[in-house]
Write a structure and sequence with these properties.
8 helices, 59% helix, elongated
Length: 237
């Protein structure tokens, strides 16, 4: 059972990787998976193309077919059993990339740089800074000033938070380091970024983990139904 869940996860990862890396070759703009009539910028979470979906299906099939040739319990099967297994693992992997797109469209924020119109991605799959928070920088400066003398603290606060323009520059520099365009300027009235699609609940890493968990449980349940295994075997796994 454990080997089965591992293969289904690998198939899902392969499908998602193929879909992401080869989907950019599509000549048409992606459409939002939760609203197919809506065209979204490339790189939007939940944006899919026929090219990307086809690449994902290919990736899932390649890994599933490879597993059919190398896993021990497939050696004694006839051709029909091997074909059924390969198609089942391909379907599990392809459903993984669809699920990843669906979860991304719902729970992950797709942030647009308003100056370039491009999607901003967080480093290492983390969330992207959307709004500037001048008060946050004021509190940071205040904490730093407490380490020094009272007079030095007053001067430090005056230099870092004395004017709104100082806050804007600091916020703008921080957002630029996170991926904003060089001309982006953030202040209280004009934000340089906006959320185009989704809710800012999960980052990309959390979406991937959630997708893998759902695919694993789904594969185990499907195996219990197809092969007549008791549901208690899932807990034992």
């Amino acid at each position: 059972m454990q080997l089965l869940t591992d293969i289904s996860n690998y198939a899902a990862v392969a499908a998602d990787t193929f879909s992401s890396e080869l989907g950019i070759l599509s000549k048409s703009n992606p459409r939002l998976i939760t609203a197919p009539w809506r065209i979204v910028p490339p790189g939007t979470n939940g944006g899919v193309t026929m090219t990307g979906l086809g690449a994902g299906l290919l990736g899932a099939f390649i890994l599933s077919a490879t597993s059919t040739l190398v896993v021990p319990f497939c050696k004694d099967w006839d051709f029909a059993d091997k074909l059924s297994y390969t198609l089942a693992m391909t379907a599990a992997g392809f459903s993984g990339t669809l699920l990843d797109s669906l979860l991304g469209a719902i729970f992950q924020a797709s942030v647009i740089d308003v100056h370039s119109g491009r999607v901003v991605e967080g480093e290492g799959g983390r969330k992207v800074l959307v709004h500037s928070h001048p008060q946050k920088y004021k509190k940071t400066a205040q904490l730093k000033s407490d380490v020094h003398s009272y007079q030095e603290g007053k001067e430090g606060i005056a230099k870092t938070t004395g004017t709104d323009s100082g806050d804007s520059i600091l916020a703008s520099r921080t957002m630029q380091k996170a991926g904003a365009s060089g001309n982006a300027v953030a202040d209280g009235q004009h934000e340089s970024r906006r959320i185009e699609v989704g809710s800012d609940i999960l980052d990309n890493n959390a979406v991937n983990i959630l997708m893998a968990a759902i695919v694993s449980v789904g594969a185990m349940l499907a195996a219990c139904v197809v092969w007549g295994l008791p549901l208690s075997s899932i807990i034992a796994t």
